[in-house]
Design brief:
heterodimer; A: alpha/beta; 6 helices; about 25% helix; globular; B: about 25% helix; elongated; binds flavin-adenine dinucleotide; binds adenosine monophosphate
Amino acid sequence: MNIVVLVKQVPDSGSERKLDPADNTVARAAADNVINEMDEYAIEEALTIKEAQGGEVTVLTVGPDGATDAIRKALSMGADKAVHVSDEAIHGSDAVQISGILAAALQQVEYDLVLCGAEATDSQMSVMPALLSERLGIPQLSGARKVTIDGGTAKVERQTDGGYWALEAPLPAIVSTWDTINEPRYPSFKGIMAAKKKPVTTLTLADIGVDASAVGLANATTQVLDFAGRPPKGEGVKVTDEGDGAQKFVDFLAGQKIV
Amino acid sequence: MAEILVLAELNPAGGGVRKTTLEALTAARALGEPSAVVLGAPGTAAGVRDQLAEYGAATVYVAESPDVDDYLVAPKAEVLAQLVGEKSPAAVVIPSSPEGKEIAARLAVKTGSGFLTDVTEITADGTATQVAFAGATIVHSKVTAGTPIYTLRGNSVTPEAAPAAGAEQPVSVSVSDQAKQVRVVERVVEQKSNRPELTEASIVVSGGRGVASAENFSVIEGLADSLGAAVGASRAAVDSGFYPHSFQVGQTGKTVSPQLYVAVGISGAIQHRAGMQTSKTIVAINKDPEAPIFELADFGVVGDLNTVVPAATEQINARK
Ligand SMILES: Cc1cc2nc3c(=O)[nH]c(=O)nc-3n(C[C@H](O)[C@H](O)[C@H](O)COP(=O)(O)OP(=O)(O)OC[C@H]3O[C@@H](n4cnc5c(N)ncnc54)[C@H](O)[C@@H]3O)c2cc1C
Ligand SMILES: Nc1ncnc2c1ncn2[C@@H]1O[C@H](COP(=O)(O)O)[C@@H](O)[C@H]1O
């Protein structure tokens, strides 16, 4: 079973994140960058499948040079090797364009299964499996809370409001995982040391046969015109409960015509 | 006037259209004349046409086929792409559910277009507003390639009726084998709730780790029921097993934008804010006066939820 896990490096969702006023793209250079938290669940799932069925786990990322940190994290958890697509021309690419780059890179590796996170915490789009399914012609089983690989078939429980849909499709397929699916392992000291020696192949757009004129900010299919901080909320009212907290709360609701 | 295709999102069999569809029809009217697209199993359109017409659909395209229901997402994107090819609409507006976003993504690749997800507003010139980074940043964006495709975040637009003809027009459906790769074997409902849908509710009452146990979530449910509200939960409450994951609000849970959001026993971590910051009015009940949730709150009660919430519930019920 050859598994590719898509991993994205993103600004830490727990820290202050910004757009860069120079070109309205995500300010990545000065940010506190980490592996997309949601991708750790995909890595864990890949490792679990490999442990049960054998095979190899390859990490694939499209991102600037600094994205090697996310790759090392994935390798230290136990992935075998990595492919890093990095090229100045990619800066400012939108989701449609990134999917074209990932699809071209995937055409150069052998895979039975592609796993990715259910969403990137910076863009919060949750669209990569759909985009890649469309480009590669492989089935999309997105939003998994459970994955079973049974011979040549992928079975997924797709999380829905108040339940799930049971999905089934032939391999090769792309599956995205929610954070309900497993508990990602922490890298061990041994894993961290071993990761330093694992192979990382760095590819440019030319290496994967993508024309630079198809990607990048200038050729994006969407454009950020401007942005601003959310206007600060006016100071709210805060009361301390001295037996009258509930009354004051209900009075407030009445004032808002809610009760 | 330019034609705008609006994909109707439907409730399960016989349940009419979702409120998000009426919101999408309303938002689309800024761009042109909306036509609704109904994709579903045979017999789907009959129960929803009138409602679509009432909210402004000049035409209702009806593509009914078991294929649309039996396989995940891909057939819907295929039929929609076929319609975009035939009608050359000025834009496509889709409710921003997980499925809606995936249909938008596929449609973008098929039609060589750009797409914007989770927009909260669309203006006449096609500029969309998005809320980024846990609500901290407001972004204005435009689609610059192909037919602009937007997915509209729920509760961002107030549905307004604008009666139109709603002329039914059948669309012939032939779904390719390629689009029939992912079979929906079963749809399982695990929690049936009589409360409003979390993402649609106009009032949400959420509990956090401070609620302290699954049993004690009855305190949250009590307040929610007195207000006719949906119940939500923080990730800590979900991870502790107090409440099911499908009720989680925040970065990796649901994004809600109700008229009133009541955060009970929730500290207000940035990842929680990500899912509720755009609520119109926010009330916080927390025993720690320093809790960051108070920075967002229009009204805050520093106190023990176990005394404040049951007392408030009782008073609200008494007023009815
Ligand atoms: C709130 C918000 C909503 C958005 N919504 C949408 C949407 O609905 N639809 C849509 O298509 N787009 C959307 N975008 C993207 C937007 O339209 C622009 O395309 C965006 O400003 C550019 O993307 P970015 O900021 O991620 O660019 P960048 O920060 O440049 O990132 C683009 C990608 O390229 C990689 N990259 C950067 N430099 C290199 C390098 N040297 N080598 C290799 N890889 C590199 C990054 O890791 C990243 O994966 C949204 C952005 C925001 C902030
Ligand atoms: N630049 C990228 N490189 C590798 N994987 C990515 C990239 N962007 C998105 N992904 C994958 O796609 C998933 C969903 O991202 P998104 O659709 O942007 O929310 C992420 O969790 C990643 O696994």
